[in-house]
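USER: For my understanding, would you kindly supply a protein sequence with its structure tokens?

ASSISTANT:
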Amino acid sequence: MENTDLILFENPHFIIDMMYARKNNMTGRAVYEEIGFGNKAYVHKKVAEKLLSLVPILEENDYKMRICDAYRPPLAHNKLLEIIPREGFFAATAERSNHCHGTAVDVCLTDVKGNNLDYPTQIDAYEDKYRLQVADGNFDEFFIHLKKARHDYMEASDLQIANRKFLKDLMESHGFSSISHEWWHYNINDYALYPLVEWNNRKAL
């Protein structure tokens, strides 16, 4: 990690809750803990600047932002691909993942007490019943459920759609780009513009 533009992101308006550092995610494994990475949100310095620019609006609305993924070590990405190898959930390679370049975050808004606002799905589209199916190698029902994570999914409640739109408008107005199939994912530019960042647990970030 030496000589990179990644920094450790910490700010009281943001809740660091890396989903792959705990087991209640769609893989059912705390992969970040397994590799010794833990619950740390590293981001490219340009991402950090854009996140900090959100603070006045967060304060105005009595919101916080939960960060559930940020920089993802390629080692972790490869482990995640082994657990869910089906195309359409994780990027096909670490090189093609914005997370592995430090240029993406997975986020939602919360109230000031840290309670998530209501969205069409949880981040990661997590539900325990689907996690158990995925663990048995059955992906079909989960990938049907995953359609609810799309920005154009309109069968959710009015509140869920409004919260999703507010988040999208907020992020895009501050320089982030969205992707069509994950309402929680935002990145800057194209991953190819930034180097892939390697990491191992023998060196401090």
Summary: The mean pLDDT is 94. Residues 158-172 form the longest helix (15 residues). Helices lie at 31-34, 45-52, 55-60, 74-83, 128-135, 140-145, 158-172. The chain is about 30% helix and 15% strand.
